Amino acid sequence: xxxxxxxxxxxxxxxxxxxxHLVCTRGCSEYYSVDVVVKAFADVKKEYPGARLDLxxxxxxxxxxxxxxxxxxxxxxxxxxxxxRQQIGKYYxxxxxxxNASWLDNMPVSVxxxxxxxxxxxxxxxxxxxxxxxxxxxxxxxxVGDEKALAANVMRLLREPALAAALAKNAYEESQKYxxxxxxxxxxxxxxxxxGQ
Length: 197
Known about the structure:
The protein is of the alpha/beta class.
């Protein structure tokens, strides 16, 4: 069954011009490889010195991620902390590109939220991600653990804003499949099939 997203939390907007302002709304846990996001951002910074990265969320590995930012002498990284349901939409709206580097995932709500906000998605491709993100239609996929490929996809969007706009539009349309009005019927069918009604 698909995950749900409350699209009323998000405002779709076109990114024109597309800025090197990235957001990652995954917590600092082992599965989400925020260290890979930071390393990719370091490569983006070499080409786009004014680039910014908002890291939204907390987690056990936050200290290690902060140390990595310090070791790489990176500027422009904002540790925003955990965002409430009422605040999360602002982070997507402020940013222009969503970046994710998870090595294990199922159907991350954060990606669906990015779809709903019109924030083009650049993500690694753990086993189930291609079921959610279609490469070059609703986002750009990179191999797991490959910060160079992740950075290259971010910079590709910055060089090809028309591609970024097309991905965002397609992804927004895709996000409509994850609303309660759509998913409710699928749940009801499962329950009816189980109960024989």
